[in-house]
C-alpha cells in the first residue's frame, strides 16, 4: 500500500547550470562623418577603450571597409584590446543607436575572442545607402555595442522535494506563545507571586525556570525552601520593566505599543511623541539590564537592536556606558559608528554625559581614541 494516502511519493532532484555574466554597452559617436571618408580601405578609427567583464575592449570603425572586397561598405568590429591567456567568451550586437530596442534586444550565439581578436561585420551597411538613411544626421551618427561577457559556468543543486503527493492536512503555525500569554494574563495555575515596585505579579515557576537559568535557581533550587510565603521580592527594578520581561518570557516577544485612540492637536501630539520616544529609550535601557540579570540573551539582543535606533548626541554616552557594562558588542559598535562623524563627536564631547563616561569607563575612551586614529 502507498505510504501516502491518495498518491505515491516521488523524490524530485534537480540542478541548474548558471552562467555568471557581466552585461553592458558602449556607444561610439562619429561627428564629422564626411571627414572620415578619407580614411583608406583597411584602416580603422578606434573608440576609446572600455572595460567590461574584467577585460578591455574597443570598437573599430572602417569608413571604407576593412578589405578591398568591402570598400563600398562601412565595416564595424568589436575588438578585444589586450592579450589573454584564456580565450574570452562573449555575445554582442552592433547596431545604429536609433535601431536599438531594449525590449527585443537578442544576442546571437557565444563568440570566442582570442588575444587582440576582433569580431563584427565586414559589410555592416553599404555606404551609399547609409548616406541616404535616417541614421546620418547633421554629418553624425552613433553605433551602440551591447555585450554579455561570460565569466564562468557554475552548477547549483536545487533542494530535493517530494512531488505528486496530495496534501490532505494543513498544519497551522504554532500558537504556543498565545496559550502561554493567556496563562500569564489570567493567572490560572500560578504558583508564585513577585512584588516589584509596589505591584504584584502572579506567574508559574515551571515556565520561568524553563526560560531562565537564573529563575530556575531561584524558584526550583535552594531558594525555594526559604520561599514559604510564595512571594518573591525584587528590588532595583521598576514594575513596568518586570511586566515587560514577563511578557517576553511567556510569548518570546515584546508587547506592542498601544495606539492613540483619539487624534489630538498637532502641537500636543508632537510634544507627546517626543516624550514617548524618550520614555521608550529609558525603558529599553532598563529592560536590557533586566535581561542580562536573568540571562535572557534573546531579549537582551532585542533591546540592543531597539537602542541602536535611539542613539543621538544626547544619549550616546549613556548607551555606550550601558553597552560596556553589559557586554553588548553590537550596541557598542553602533555607538562608535555614530561617533565617527566629526560633527557628532564634537557635539557629544561638550556634554556632561561624555565627561561622566570619561571618568567611569576609561577603557572606552582608549578604544575611542584608537578608532579615531584609524
UniProtKB/TrEMBL annotation:
Belongs to the Tdpoz family. Pfam families: BACK_BPM_SPOP (PF24570), BTB (PF00651), MATH_2 (PF22486). It comes from Eragrostis curvula. InterPro entries: BACK_BPM_SPOP, BPM1-6, BTB/POZ_dom, MATH/TRAF_dom, SKP1/BTB/POZ_sf, TRAF-like. Residues 190-258 form the BTB domain. Residues 23-147 form the MATH domain. PANTHER family: BTB/POZ AND MATH DOMAIN-CONTAINING PROTEIN 1 (PTHR26379), OS10G0428900 PROTEIN (PTHR26379:SF429). Residues 257-279 are annotated as: Disordered. Gene3D superfamilies: 1.25.40.420, Apoptosis, Tumor Necrosis Factor Receptor Associated Protein 2, Chain A (2.60.210.10), Potassium Channel Kv1.1, Chain A (3.30.710.10). Pathway: Protein modification; protein ubiquitination. This is BTB domain-containing protein. One of its GO terms (biological process) is protein ubiquitination. Residues 257-274 have a biased composition (Basic and acidic residues).
Amino acid at each position: 500500500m502507498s505510504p501516502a494516502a491518495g498518491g505515491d511519493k516521488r523524490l524530485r532532484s534537480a540542478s541548474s547550470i548558471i552562467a555568471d555574466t557581466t552585461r553592458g554597452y558602449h556607444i561610439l559617436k562619429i561627428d564629422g562623418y564626411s571627414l572620415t571618408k578619407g580614411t583608406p580601405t583597411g584602416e580603422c578609427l578606434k573608440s576609446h577603450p572600455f572595460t567590461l567583464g574584467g577585460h578591455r575592449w574597443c570598437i573599430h570603425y572602417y569608413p571604407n571597409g576593412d578589405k578591398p572586397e568591402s570598400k563600398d561598405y562601412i565595416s564595424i568590429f568589436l575588438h578585444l584590446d589586450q592579450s589573454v591567456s584564456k580565450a574570452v567568451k562573449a555575445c554582442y550586437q552592433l547596431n545604429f543607436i536609433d535601431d536599438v530596442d531594449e525590449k527585443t534586444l537578442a544576442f546571437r550565439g557565444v563568440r570566442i575572442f582570442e588575444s587582440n581578436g576582433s569580431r563584427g561585420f565586414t559589410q555592416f551597411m553599404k555606404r551609399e545607402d547609409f548616406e541616404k538613411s535616417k541614421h546620418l544626421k547633421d554629418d553624425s551618427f552613433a553605433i551602440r555595442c551591447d555585450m554579455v561577457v561570460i565569466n564562468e559556468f557554475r552548477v547549483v543543486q536545487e533542494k530535493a522535494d517530494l512531488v505528486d503527493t496530495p496534501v490532505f492536512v494543513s498544519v497551522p503555525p504554532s500558537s504556543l506563545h498565545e496559550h502561554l500569554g493567556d496563562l500569564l494574563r489570567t493567572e490560572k495555575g500560578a504558583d508564585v507571586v513577585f512584588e516589584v515596585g509596589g505591584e504584584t505579579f502572579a506567574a508559574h515557576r515551571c515556565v520561568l525556570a524553563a526560560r531562565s537559568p537564573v529563575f530556575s535557581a531561584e524558584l526550583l533550587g535552594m531558594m525555594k525552601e526559604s520561599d514559604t510565603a510564595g512571594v518573591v521580592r525584587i528590588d532595583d527594578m521598576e514594575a513596568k520593566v518586570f511586566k515587560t520581561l514577563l511578557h517576553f518570557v511567556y510569548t518570546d516577544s515584546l508587547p506592542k505599543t498601544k495606539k492613540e485612540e483619539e487624534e489630538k492637536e498637532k502641537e500636543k501630539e508632537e510634544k507627546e511623541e517626543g516624550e514617548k520616544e524618550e520614555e521608550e529609550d529609558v525603558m529599553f535601557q532598563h529592560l536590557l539590564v533586566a535581561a542580562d540579570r536573568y540571562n535572557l540573551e534573546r531579549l537582551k539582543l532585542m533591546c540592543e537592536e531597539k537602542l541602536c535606533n535611539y542613539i543621538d548626541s544626547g544619549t550616546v554616552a549613556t548607551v555606550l556606558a550601558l553597552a560596556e557594562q553589559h557586554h553588548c558588542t553590537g550596541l557598542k559598535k553602533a555607538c562608535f559608528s555614530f561617533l565617527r562623524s566629526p560633527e557628532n563627536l564634537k557635539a557629544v564631547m561638550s556634554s556632561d554625559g561624555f565627561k561622566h563616561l570619561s571618568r567611569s569607563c576609561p577603557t572606552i575612551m582608549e578604544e575611542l581614541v584608537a578608532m579615531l586614529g584609524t
